[in-house]
Amino acid sequence: MTVSVPLPLESGLSECARYPSALGCDGLDLGLALLTLGVLAVVVWLLAAGSATTMIARRHPARSAVWLAVVWCLPILGALSWYTYLAGIHASRRTSAN
What we know:
The chain is an all-alpha fold. The chain is 70% helix and 0% strand. The protein has one domain. The N and C termini lie far apart (92 Å). Keywords: Membrane, Transmembrane, Transmembrane helix. This is Phospholipase_D-nuclease N-terminal.
């Protein structure tokens, strides 16, 4: 009696592209999609948080610690809350000036 084990002809992603039923290729598409979305989310978070950090440091040097904690500890939402707060300040100044 002979036991046959399928030996991969290639290794890595190229094998999964050619033979989707190969051992270890199940769910690879979902994993790659999640990895791509995760990397994109981290890049957006770092850019938004870096931009907000620069604006916070210029605008509120004395109260910057709280806003910096919010911006960096709440990925993406922290920066959005800072921009919303800043837009509210600008809107209130425009209405009070008129």
